[in-house]
Design brief:
By secondary structure, the chain is α+β, with helices and mostly antiparallel strands. The protein folds into two domains: about 5-170, no CATH class; about 205-380. The protein contains 16 helices and twelve strands. An eight-stranded mixed beta sheet has the order 2-5-4-3-1-8-6-7. A two-stranded antiparallel ribbon has the order 9-10. β3 and β4 (about 90-100) form a beta hairpin. α9 (about 225-240) packs across α15 (about 355-365). The radius of gyration is 22 Å and the shape is globular.
Length: about 375
């Protein structure tokens, strides 16, 4: 295949009302065993079964492509998108098995498969699972539009009338990576995304929905990277929960906003680098020259230099991006100013409520045009 294919499946609550929770529980249990040195890194996975419907008359569709897509997992990220129509998750596909699992792998699958005698056409080996949308059907619909259905003339995936012959074989044009090792180490403190999401809790969904409906609007909220949305909502939820407590340390608010800026700015730059001459992409990082197109994610300390540190590069970026003037001229000094607060916050220094309130209002746009709103407006032309 000339491009990476991914898969979309729907989980059926009739098999288990908490199917996703049960898969996550298996993965989290192995993660805990690994942290306790009772399991190896190779044990960090869960099997997701594509249950064979008793009503299906035809053979499983798309079999060769399902096998081929899963086989690409060794060299490319292959995603299994999972939805019950209200929530959306993405799994990192490490491999696929036809037919029954080996006995040794039963401990890596939820018990309900065996207890209900469910037969599966395929088992997908998932090394991690990330929550993209929680309890928000409209956002699920918009997220799935980013995927193109290979067997429907490349049209966007639709929840209504498009969920046939599952799992769907799909592509996505933005080359999105959800499981980059370096990014995960930095953003989740070297934990699985499943662990990170479990710590954030499902209550984050209400904050995300409120930000989408009442602060950013649908279009700009969905323009943000999923991780950026999570970090913005995390910062906002912590702030709202503790805004009346003058003694609370608001460092987690600042740290989460910092990760949101970092994630979204890197996503914008990754879209631009391939269109910029290699000579303009070279930058000294940690004492050696590097091609910025080869760096998946820059730290805040290097982001402002990557944008405005070299005049030709800055001018090229400005021309390639919508809202390019703001991105190249206003964002670098904002990042530098923010780092003066963020850096102490990440080194165990307390952040006062007034400082957190000032940056929270400035970033999401309380009484002003938010810097994160402007960042959401920035995209390739």
């Amino acid at each position: 295949m000339s491009e990476t294919h991914h898969l979309v499946a729907v989980w059926n609550p009739s098999y288990s009302a908490s199917a996703m929770d049960e898969h996550l529980a298996v993965l989290l249990r192995w993660a805990q065993l690994y942290e306790e040195s009772k399991a190896d890194e190779e044990d960090l996975y869960v099997w997701w079964g594509k249950v064979r419907s008793s009503n299906r008359q035809r053979p499983q569709a798309n079999v060769p492509e399902i096998r081929a897509a899963a086989a690409m997992g060794g060299e490319h990220e292959v995603h299994l998108y999972l939805t019950d129509y209200r929530s959306l998750y993405v799994g990192e596909v490490l491999g696929v098995v036809d037919g029954p699992l080996a006995a040794a792998d039963h401990a890596h699958a939820p018990a309900y498969y065996a207890e209900q005698g469910l037969n599966c056409d395929f088992w997908f080996k998932l090394g991690d699972i990330r929550r993209l949308v929680a309890d928000d059907t409209l956002q699920v619909i918009d997220e799935l539009k980013k995927l193109s259905n290979v067997h429907y003339n490349g049209r966007p995936v639709s929840l209504y009338g498009g969920m046939v012959d599952l799992p769907l074989v799909v592509t996505r044009s933005d080359g999105m990576s959800f499981f980059d090792d370096d990014e995960r180490v930095r953003l989740t403190d070297d934990r699985l995304w499943a662990e990170f999401d479990a710590e954030a809790g499902t209550g984050l969904a209400a904050t995300e929905r409120d930000l989408r409906e009442n602060r950013f609007g649908d279009h700009l909220w969905l323009a943000l990277d999923p991780a950026a949305r999570t970090f913005i909502a995390t910062a906002e939820r912590i702030y709202r929960e503790h805004r009346a407590d003058a003694a609370f340390d608001f460092a987690p608010v600042i740290a989460s906003f910092g990760k949101a800026i970092e994630v979204q700015t890197n996503a914008i730059l990754r879209s631009a680098w391939p269109k910029i001459d290699k000579r303009a992409r070279l930058m000294n990082i940690d004492g050696r020259g590097q091609d910025l197109a080869d760096v998946w994610s820059l730290l805040l300390a290097n982001l402002s230099r990557a944008i405005s540190g070299e005049k030709n590069r800055m001018e090229l970026l400005r021309g390639l991006l919508r809202n390019g003037n703001w991105f190249t001229e206003s964002l670098p000094p904002i990042i530098d100013e923010f780092r003066e607060v963020r850096n102490p916050a990440t080194h165990s220094e307390a952040v006062e409520r007034a400082i957190a309130a000032q940056w929270r209002d400035r970033l999401i746009g309380v009484g002003c045009t938010g810097d994160l709103v402007e960042l959401a407006r920035t995209r390739p032309k």
